[in-house]
Amino acid sequence: MTTALDDRDHRILALLRTDAWLSYTELSRQVNLSASAVQRRVERMIASGVILGAEAQVAVPATDAPLTLFLLAELADESREALQRFSTAITASPAVVEAYYVAGEADVVLKLCLPDMAAYDRFVETHINASNLVRRFKTLTALRSLRTKT
Question: Full-prediction pTM beyond 0.85?
Fold first, then answer.
């Protein structure tokens, strides 16, 4: 590693350590350089071995978890504040891999990936029943994916 790093390089590295998904445009805004200049710097740091790679810190279980469920919830209160409270509460759970506010029979659809039914029961008690934000809900159990792998 023979690359000399200046203050902007160190700032870029600090920003990437915090969020490796930052775009060159966002990085450029924060370090006061053009996006192309930032890209060249990042590519130079990759080529010289300063940046070894990026890693995702995943807070959800693998999508191949043994149990995939879809929870359809009707909220007790559809105000913006209630929806925000519910969203904050359920998205904090690593079991929730996708969450949607929807129109139709339910207000919210959650995709859950869990190891077993006991974990599902704990999720319902903690995030659904204890919240007092859900009027009623139903759950669909996925039997298998219809997506074909290529």
Answer: no
